C-alpha cells in the first residue's frame, strides 16, 4: 500500500465558501450537558445574534478538562462538525489545561469520516537549534497542526474557533481539579519563574487551587494576534520574532528558523480488520498508535512494541503497518514518559476525531514565552517522546468507537484495551494508570461519551 505523506507550510488562509458562525465563550466549571442545545452564561463574541443552535443528537466531546469540552460541544451545537469542534477544544485546552496542552507543545489527531480512509495528522514539536539555553524548549507545533486539520476537514471559519478561547483567557476560567492537581505537583519549580508565578501563583508560596479564577490577558492578546494576522504569523511573520525572542530570554534556545521548519505530517492511519470491524490507529511519527494497535490485535504490551520500534529507529508508516500486520511484539519497558492529555469528538454525521496532546513534560519548561503568555514546551532533545495514542473503530452500521488516552507509559495499552472492550461490546474498564476518553456507539448512531471516573474530565453530549 502506498502511504501519503504531506508536509506543508501554512500561512493562515481561509477556505472559500466556509460559513462563518458566532461562537459563545465563557463556561461554568463542571456544568453537565444532557439535552441542552447551548450553554447558559455564554456571551457572543462577534456580531449581535448567534447562529441558531441545533437540537437533538449533535455529537459528543469527551476531554480531561470540562471547560474545554464545553467549548467543543458548543461548536457542535452551532453546526460545526467534529473537526471544527476538535480544533476549538484543543485551543481551549491551551487556556484551561496549560500544564499538558499549552500552545507551546504539540500532539497528534486521528480523523475518520464515513466511507473514507482514516487519516493521521501529527504535529510534533521540534528541538531548538540555538545554543546556550538553560531550559531547552520545543517549537510550538499545535496551531500549525490544528490549522492543517481545519484546512482539510473544517466547515466554519478558523477564526471563530479561536474566539471562545480568547474570551476564556481574557475573562478568566475557573481552575479545574485537573489543572489544580498539576499545579500542586510542580508548585516549587513553577513559582521559581517570575512570569509563571505571575500567572499561576497564589500568595507568597502557593499556586492556584480548584475553584480559583485564572485570568491570562497576555495569552488572550496572543490569540487575538493569531486571529487577526493568521496562524502563519507565528511561523513566518512578526509573531515568530516575538515568540523566538521571548523563548531565548526564558532560556529556550529557539529561533525563527526553528519555527519555520515546524511542519505537521499527514499520513494514512494504521489499520486492521477482523470480525467485520475496521480499526484505525494513529500512525508514526505518533508511534503510540502502533503500540495501541499491537495491544488491540495481539493483547501484547503496547509499551514493549513501541520500545522495539524506537530501538530500531524506524519511522516509515509502511514499516509500521507491516509490523502491525505481522503482529510484531517484544521490546522492554520505556523510560518514564512525559505527561499528556487526550480528547475525542464525534458529530451527527459520523465524523470522529481522537487526539492526544503533550508539552513533553508537565508544564513543559516551566517558563513562559514572554508577552505571549504561552507555557514553553520542553525540547524533545531533552526528554523522551510521549506516547500519543488514539483509535477509531467502525463496522458496517457506522461508527463503533473513538478512543484516546493519557497516562504516560500506559497510554497506548489503555487505548488498545479500550478498543478490545468496544469490539466485544463490553464496558471500558478504567483500570491501571492509563486514562481513557472515549465515545462508544451501538447501531452506528446511538453513542455515549465515557471518561475515566478517577479523573476530572467531562463527557458533553446531547441526546434526543
Automatic annotation (TrEMBL):
Pfam families: G_glu_transpept. It comes from the Bacteria. InterPro entries: GGT_bact (IPR051792), Ntn_hydrolases_N (IPR029055). Signal peptide: none annotated. Belongs to the gamma-glutamyltransferase family. PANTHER family: GLUTATHIONE HYDROLASE, GLUTATHIONE HYDROLASE PROENZYME. This is Gamma-glutamyltranspeptidase.
Amino acid at each position: 500500500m502506498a502511504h501519503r505523506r504531506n508536509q506543508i507550510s501554512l500561512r493562515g488562509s481561509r477556505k472559500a465558501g466556509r460559513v462563518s458562525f458566532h461562537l459563545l465563550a465563557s463556561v461554568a466549571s463542571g456544568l453537565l450537558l444532557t439535552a441542552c442545545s447551548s450553554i447558559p452564561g455564554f456571551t457572543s463574541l462577534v456580531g449581535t445574534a448567534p447562529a441558531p443552535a441545533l437540537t437533538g443528537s449533535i455529537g459528543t466531546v469527551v476531554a480531561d478538562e470540562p471547560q474545554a469540552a464545553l467549548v467543543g460541544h458548543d461548536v457542535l451545537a452551532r453546526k460545526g462538525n467534529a473537526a471544527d469542534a476538535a480544533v476549538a477544544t484543543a485551543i481551549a485546552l491551551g487556556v484551561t489545561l496549560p500544564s499538558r496542552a499549552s500552545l507551546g507543545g504539540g500532539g497528534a489527531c486521528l480523523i475518520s469520516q464515513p466511507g473514507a480512509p482514516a487519516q493521521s495528522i501529527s504535529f510534533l514539536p521540534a528541538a531548538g537549534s540555538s545554543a546556550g539555553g538553560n531550559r531547552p524548549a520545543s517549537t510550538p507545533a499545535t496551531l500549525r497542526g490544528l490549522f492543517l486539520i481545519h484546512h482539510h476537514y473544517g466547515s466554519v471559519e478558523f477564526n471563530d474557533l479561536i474566539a471562545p478561547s480568547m474570551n476564556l483567557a481574557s475573562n478568566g476560567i475557573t481552575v479545574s481539579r485537573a489543572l489544580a492537581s498539576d499545579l500542586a505537583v510542580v508548585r516549587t519549580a513553577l513559582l521559581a519563574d517570575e512570569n509563571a508565578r505571575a500567572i499561576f501563583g497564589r500568595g507568597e508560596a502557593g499556586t492556584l487551587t480548584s475553584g480559583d479564577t485564572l485570568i491570562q490577558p497576555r495569552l488572550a492578546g496572543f490569540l487575538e494576534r493569531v486571529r487577526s494576522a493568521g496562524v502563519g504569523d507565528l511561523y513566518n511573520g512578526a509573531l515568530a520574532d516575538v515568540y523566538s525572542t521571548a523563548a531565548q530570554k526564558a532560556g529556550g534556545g529557539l529561533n525563527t528558523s526553528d519555527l519555520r521548519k515546524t511542519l505537521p505530517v499527514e499520513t494514512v492511519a494504521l489499520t486492521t480488520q477482523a470480525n467485520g470491524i475496521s480499526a484505525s490507529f494513529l500512525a508514526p511519527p505518533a508511534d503510540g498508535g502502533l503500540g495501541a494497535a499491537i495491544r488491540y490485535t495481539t493483547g501484547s504490551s503496547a509499551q514493549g512494541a513501541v520500545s522495539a520500534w524506537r530501538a530500531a529507529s524506524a519511522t516509515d508508516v509502511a514499516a509500521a503497518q507491516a509490523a502491525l500486520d505481522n503482529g510484531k511484539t517484544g521490546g522492554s519497558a520505556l523510560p518514564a514518559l512525559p505527561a499528556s492529555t487526550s480528547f475525542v469528538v464525534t458529530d451527527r454525521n459520523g465524523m470522529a476525531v481522537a487526539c492526544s496532546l503533550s508539552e513533553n513534560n508537565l508544564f513543559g519548561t516551566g517558563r513562559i514565552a514572554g508577552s505571549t503568555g504561552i507555557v514553553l514546551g520542553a525540547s524533545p532533545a531533552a526528554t523522551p517522546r510521549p506516547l500519543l495514542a488514539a483509535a477509531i473503530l467502525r463496522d458496517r452500521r457506522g461508527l463503533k468507537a473513538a478512543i484516546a488516552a493519557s497516562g504516560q507509559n500506559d497510554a497506548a495499552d489503555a487505548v488498545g484495551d479500550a478498543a478490545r472492550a468496544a469490539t466485544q461490546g463490553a464496558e471500558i474498564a478504567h483500570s491501571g494508570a492509563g486514562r481513557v476518553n472515549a465515545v462508544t456507539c451501538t447501531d452506528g448512531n446511538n453513542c455515549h461519551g465515557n471518561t475515566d471516573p478517577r479523573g476530572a474530565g467531562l463527557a458533553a453530549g446531547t441526546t434526543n
